[in-house]
Amino acid sequence: MSVIHSAGEPLPHIPDNMTLAHFMLNYRHPTRPAVPVERPLMIEDATGRLIYSEETRHETNALAAELISRFHIGEQHCACVLSVCIFSPNHVLWPVAVWALHKIGAVVTPANPAYTAEELVHQLKISRATLIIVHPMVYHVAVTAACESGIALQKIVLVEGASDAKTDFGSHSTISEMIQAGAGHAARFVERPLKPGEARKKLAFLCFSSGTTGLPKAVAISHYSLVANLVQIATYINSDLSPWEKKQCRSGDVALADIYGLLFVMHYMLYNGMPLVVMPKFEFASFLKSIERYRINYIPLVPPIMLLLCKHPDVKKHNMSSIRTIVSGAAPLSGELTQQLSEVLPNVSIAQGYGMTETAVAVSLPRLDRKIGAPGSAGVLIPGVSARIVRPDGSLAGRNEPGQLVVTGPAMAQGYLNDEKATGETFVDGWVYTGDEVMINDTGELFIVDRIKELLKVKGFQVAPAELEGFLLDHPDVSDVCIVGIQDDYNGDIPIAFVVPSANALLRIQADAVEADRIKHALVEYVAAGKAHYKQLTGGVAFIDTIPRNASGKLLRRLLRDTARSIWRSGKLSKEKTKL
Description:
Radius of gyration: 24 Å
Helix content: 25-40%
CATH architecture of the largest domain: 3-Layer(aba) Sandwich
CATH topology of the largest domain: Rossmann fold
Number of domains: 3
Protein name: AMP-dependent synthetase/ligase domain-containing protein
CATH superfamily of the largest domain: ANL, N-terminal domain
GO molecular function, one term: CoA-ligase activity
Mean pLDDT: 90
Shape: globular
Low-confidence stretches: 574-580
Number of helices: 16
Domain AMP-binding enzyme C-terminal: 467-554
Strand content: 15-25%
Pfam families: AMP-binding, AMP-binding_C
Domain AMP-dependent synthetase/ligase: 39-417
């Protein structure tokens, strides 16, 4: 079989002459439902404040006007591509900041708020960011990274003011202050219209992904790619012919924005008229209270939180009856966990989808005719997506046969910024090689079999083994190292470091047997101090004589993965759950 095409509705026209901001704020596509003006766009979780579309539209224009006036940025001031980093947890001003930047022609590079300064520096340098929008809780990390990246402190804007009056953040402006200042000339601001076809090449985001291997790379995503994926998702969701009370995703349902989803959550939910309850930081107790307080219907989650819903005693203390749909993403959802959650919440539709940054974003979504997805199923290909299943020898597999998933469609990213080698490996003639081993059955359902790529997923976050390996190799007690992961329902992947001790470390171990445990503990602490919370060695450290490699020197991770499973089962590594 050569190509597997998505079934269902044909795609309607996808405009290629507008930015994502214009598409969201000023354009009515046929796939978009009519939304009553009295329905809020977002709900601020902490205060219950309702934010409406007209308010967001006004604030976006005011911020865009002030960004140009104050920093002299935008297409009218700079012929080169301007990149702006947003380093912040979820916030009701996220859409305003993103769309204002898009309106002035800037590219947004969102950074994980859990990043260390070193990790943020890597992103700032690769993306060539010249301005940083920062939340106060990560301000000091941003300042350190800005100094190391050559970004002037005057080019830092705060998402909001400090809640603690004793904390000194200098003279930085906040987004709200800039909106207020820009309100006076917002009416004069007019977004530059794009020419036909221009949105296909004009970048909207530089989102960082480790791809199939290596350190995080900047995925170049155009405005057209994101508009196309919104149209694809909407076309698929609108094809649901179920009675209204049984539909999985409905305009007017209250959704929760607490975990992930620059496109699917922030953009599609708003596009579909689903008020978003915005939680800045996930805490399970607050999560349960918000579901009850705001009668939340639709919740995008990652598997570790679904496991908490199954096992945490506090769940029974709250009214969960409003939940209609839970959709899993960012990491594989096991059939066992799906079954457990369906027993705890028997009236809830539970399923998972599939996508990646490089496909910008969704490739498959849950079947609309099933309340509970088939075990291991990631749904069906959405309209406009075509797939190939490629065997290890490069030949094409058929249905019910495993192989690497290779996909194409209107939403694919352009490639990795300034990385021809990595782009050539992943993006080939319009097709994206996902690095995931999958199977598509006779009914078109996609099943994730295994990861061909080296990338680990810890609680839905990407962790590149090469990044941790490079970091550990800088430690004087490490001669060689290989990072592998083993699967766990709570964490997803549990990173384990196989380390060849340095000559000096071996001498100390030979002199004192207890030194081995000291070194292992020190290496775990070294990573804990230098890397984000989800990049920790939660599986511990195991010493090994040599790291297995093939003739060309490539790490044979599969061999060590098997060894890791064996020693994990034997209890030779700590199995304590680490809070991430």
